[in-house]
What we know:
- The chain is of the alpha/beta class.
- Helix content is 46%, strand content 24%.
- Strand 1 and strand 2 form a beta hairpin.
Amino acid sequence: MFDWDDLRHFLAVASSGSTTAAARLLGVDQSTVQRRLAELERRLGQPLAERHPAGYRLTPFGEQLLPHARRVEESVLALEDVVRSCARELTGVVRVTCPEPIVYRLSKSPLLERFRARHPHLQVEFLMSDRYLDLGKGEADVALRSGDTVDSELVGRKVGDSLWAVYGSHAYIARHGEPRCVEDLSHHALVGFDDSMSGHRANAWLRQVAPGARWAATADSVLGLVSSAKAGMGLAPLPTALGDAESELARVLGPIPELTRIWRILTTKRLRRTPRVSAFFDFMAAEVEALRPILTG
């Protein structure tokens, strides 16, 4: 029947007694107030205010409508207060995708506890995957991701470096020796990603530098590579944050420059503006010094 914005202009005229004063009150020009008031009168079918030498005076119909309009204004203001309160409280769930080892390392750090203390009504849900979930399709809200990102719909910030090296178990090295250079990898058994991760840069690098090598095992996750390398099945490229932390493994080559990438925190342009995602994004971006050793080692 009418637009609340038109009703707001009517209330401003009623309280100030002129369209000029109403315009100052609302932060618009006088013509806008006059146009909005005329539109409300057209919709209601009756005049609400009449112009007099001293300003505007409400018609009997306007006087009758005024207390009801004020109650509508009170309800709208109460609704706005609730919306602002919810935004301040930041309730909801933030779905974060990252590789499983990062979740483990985050959970062992005080970072998540500090986030919960700052935003007690926000819940962080981790979606653990070595593959890239599609943020644009809603598979997750935020990603902690290393590697190349070419999606123009994503916004992000660097939070660390992803360093990779080649590792082998002490038992494997005792049996087969260490490679002295990258070219020696052709004479060793290798562990790499399976077909589900065939596009990973580590696989591409191994096939380039050791095209004739024997593949002893494949896995669909970094943790699978770690397990196979610890079992002595072959040499494996691993993030230094994981490989260096394993007492059963020794670094035999690297870090490998060709495998170095940037760790980023990413989200979509739309989600970046939402309070819950913005809270998590800004917190992690501010905690780079604490986050970097978790990601890089």
